[in-house]
Amino acid sequence: MEHKLKIHATTCDPDFGIRVSNFLNNVGIGVSNFEYAVFPGFCDVHVHFREPGFSYKETVATGCASAARGGYTAVCTMPNLNPTPDTLEHLNIQRQIIESDACIHVYPYGTITMGEVGQQLSDMDAMAPYVCGFSDDGRGVQNDQMMRTAMEKAKKLGKMIVAHCEVNDLLRGGYIHDGEYAKAHGHRGICSESEWAQIARDLELVKEIGCAYHVCHISTKESVDIIRKAKAEGVDVTCETGPHYLILDDSHLQEDGRFKMNPPLRSKDDRLALIEGIVDGTIDMIATDHAPHSAEEKSKGLEKSAFGVVGLETAFAAMYTHLVKPGIITTERLVELLVDNPRKRFHLPIGLDFSLWDLNKQYTVDPAEFESMGKATPFTGMELYGRCLLTVCDGKIVWQENT
Fold it and tell me: Which residue in 13, 44, 250, 289 is the catalytic one?
């Protein structure tokens, strides 16, 4: 049958289209004369695969399967594990699981501080050759001098500081955005300053030290403004936001743990500012912060459920449906956000990595279909366009839709 493939190029691999066409021809995959799209393997620099220590939430194997179903062939795994990867010995426990169980490329982070408690630097020297960067994700580094020392060490090692920015003293027991929904329903709110104040502090340190710095999951309009200004001044900073922050805000909240994540869904003005940051290039990449928990942990409402939602299997379709189809960004810009920018910033190679999509396929998000052990997503029941039919990593099929 005639192949009518739209192959979306990547600046990471100038021969991408030729290599994909040759692969499909060689393996004899039958593609009907309906128009399909091929994308380079997506890259998510912010996921939680929960091993070692929390395999009842997710494993490296199930996390990779989830990623592959969503078109991802490379992910960077956050270090809030047990044991935390704060020494080479601890990191090697995770590396052995990855070597054994991963079907895609998995790049671990090392922690910034021992145990992620902010008191003592991790063994950054020993871990540096084996990690994609250093992060205390889940916690902000509270002590200014500790962050300065970490940045100096990271610069010396040629590694990036990847910061979860959160001022503990400003949290005040909050668990959703300190906005209209919180006030109307008697919930304790998390103020926006808890995020942007630490970003501002860190960027002053980056100006002084000159290290490479990346901000995790920004959610506020102030964060966008601060990072935009820093970039204009030549500061070596990049940042990410997540699909849920671009599509939803606190007006969409329900009394359900699948709407609880950290940072929380903010206001409509924040959401619009994030979209503006995507359009003008202030925000460099989209990362899911895929954070699976058990059904029990997510069944306790907004106040008592664990923070975190899953996102690898819905990210592309959500962004295609809500940003590309309405004409807010182009498909090419989405490829930059999901492929080129994260791979270039984190120095992650791409081999024969791609996914095949039916962009005209409309469906309803049903977490029961997920490969991830985590099922909590604010997109449940949402109508999306774009179904991943096939994912190839290093020339091997790692996901194929049953059709």
Answer: 289
